[in-house]
């Protein structure tokens, strides 16, 4: 296992992918505080919000307000999700310098989730990517359902490769390969990544795992052995695909960082500060943190006098 | 990753290691039902209980009753934990055919947890192992704190190797290497296993991970690549070391089986039946299952009429 990258860049997706899929909305000021706290932990990429239509995702209707409110730290990128040219214009008006676009490897998922075929979604991105290139705006591309789809079941690796290659050809500097419903296991994850890396440089690839079946860190380990050096994760394990059964969301950033540091891989992230932010966010959301590290490192609760009496 | 074993034997430790460390006791009849349900899923080893002094572990005071009650299936082993000769005699009187003994790689943990130095614990086992050999009783050995100790912190790999070698020399047919507090990460887990396998045949080794920091499946993957083919796990992720902070217990058997099947490794276990048993047990314990697979595969709840009204 000596072929691990020396350093991994974490793309923190909690404020967007995470909060978008949580039941309890949080206040705009709290979203801003979350992003600021995250950017102070040493994370270099914090996905801030999404300029989708507020009709579709009311949780993110405050996108421009959030983006305007964050204290932008030098060296930290704050990409935002953009679904189309109207979203791009709103994002640019808000001062956004990096965006992300989103499609799927599964035709069935694309049609249900973004109301377009995969090809239509790519055609929709083309003018956004052209304008972004002209404006000096960097674009990240997401491919979802790379290891399985809630509607069609299996997803062919060739379909993942095709979509990733097209996003790269359209100008995305990085393609994030997402196991949206968390069904993948390590050999399948590794083979998928290897196939994509045959067409798109590994340096332009990221992996994005959900922990629905508890497989995220094992899948990540297999992909790190393959050489991937960019990893998406969400603080406190927030989010989750609303179409997937089970309560589990994105792999928790804290758990990813713990593993990477244990492997001797640098992330630049202060794990204690990150875990504290995760517990703070979970409290805001009114639920327990989805990070095992966050739970294991929580300060011991004050002794309960009733229990102390009982010995 | 082609060097994975074709088949893995799961040692289900939920009824003993799991229930011993749960807050809510369950009834003797439920313990028996749990063991019977588990043995019907295809598991070949189900650790049934512990013949420790009821003064020390009152949750397990019904050991003889449990052992007498289970419907023993041909081909399934039901080992029980035995701390000393008195325990061995009680176990034998109950008809037990396989036992397990328990010590630690950390001197500080041994003194606090079993009230003996490591050497004293091994001396205590010697007559038990002698009698077991004479009686045709197989003995499994546990080594705890192989990747860290809550009292002394780091544990030297050489200490793990020494204890494992001695248990093997004393006659244990299998040595289970336990990351009791779940702090390990994959490279450390793999290096520890590799060092032990330099002195004890890999075929006589098992790994035992706790999911306190979410690392269990990643550690397991690294150890499977190294060739280990016996894995301890607890249905519903029950248990956990009471000395470790954080609520997480043993790695959930369901999540282990899901990964193994995804890797093409045979276990002989019916995952649906196992996940159902885990949810049944969690309901008995009055808490959510600790298995992600158990949650993800739970039957959808009946629609809530109040929510249906809200659209």
TrEMBL record, chains A, B:
One matching Pfam family: HMGL-like
Span of domain Pyruvate carboxyltransferase: 8-275
Entry keyword Lyase: yes
InterPro entries, per database record: Aldolase_TIM, HMGL, PYR_CT
Domain of life according to the entry: Bacteria
Keywords, alphabetical: Lyase, Metal-binding
A GO term for molecular function: lyase activity
Entry-linked CDD domains: DRE_TIM_HMGL
Residues covered by region (Disordered): 292-311
Gene3D superfamilies: Aldolase class I
Family to which this protein belongs: Belongs to the HMG-CoA lyase family.
Name of the molecule in the record: Hydroxymethylglutaryl-CoA lyase
Organism expressing this protein natively: Luteimonas endophytica
């Amino acid at each position: 296992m000596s072929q691990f990258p020396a350093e991994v860049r974490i793309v923190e997706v909690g404020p967007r992918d995470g909060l978008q899929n949580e039941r309890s909305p949080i206040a705009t000021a709290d979203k801003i505080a979350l992003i600021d706290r995250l950017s102070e932990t040493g994370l270099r990429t914090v996905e801030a919000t999404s300029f989708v239509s507020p009709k579709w995702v009311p949780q993110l209707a405050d996108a421009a307000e959030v983006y305007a409110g964050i204290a932008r730290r030098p060296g930290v990128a704050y990409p935002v999700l953009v679904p189309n040219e109207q979203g791009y214009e709103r994002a640019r008006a808000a001062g956004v310098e990096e965006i992300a676009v989103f499609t799927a490897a599964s035709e069935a998922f694309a049609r249900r989730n973004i109301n377009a075929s995969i090809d239509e979604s790519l055609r929709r991105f083309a003018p956004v990517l052209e304008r972004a290139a002209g404006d000096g705006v960097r674009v990240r591309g997401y491919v979802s359902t790379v290891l399985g789809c809630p509607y069609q079941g299996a997803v062919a690796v060739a379909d993942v490769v095709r979509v990733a290659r097209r996003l790269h050809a359209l100008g995305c500097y990085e393609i994030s390969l997402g196991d949206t419903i968390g069904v993948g296991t390590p050999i399948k994850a590794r083979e998928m990544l290897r196939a994509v890396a045959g067409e798109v440089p590994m340096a332009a690839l990221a992996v994005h795992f959900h922990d629905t079946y508890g497989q995220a860190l094992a899948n990540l380990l297999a992909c790190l052995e393959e050489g991937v050096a960019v990893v998406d994760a969400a603080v406190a394990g927030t989010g989750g695909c609303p179409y997937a059964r089970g309560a589990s969301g994105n792999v928790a950033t804290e758990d990813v960082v713990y593993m990477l540091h244990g492997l001797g891989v640098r992330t630049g992230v202060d794990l204690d500060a990150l875990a504290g932010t995760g517990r703070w966010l979970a409290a805001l959301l009114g639920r327990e943190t989805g990070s095992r590290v966050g739970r294991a490192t929580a300060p011991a609760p004050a002794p309960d006098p009733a229990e102390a009496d009982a010995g």
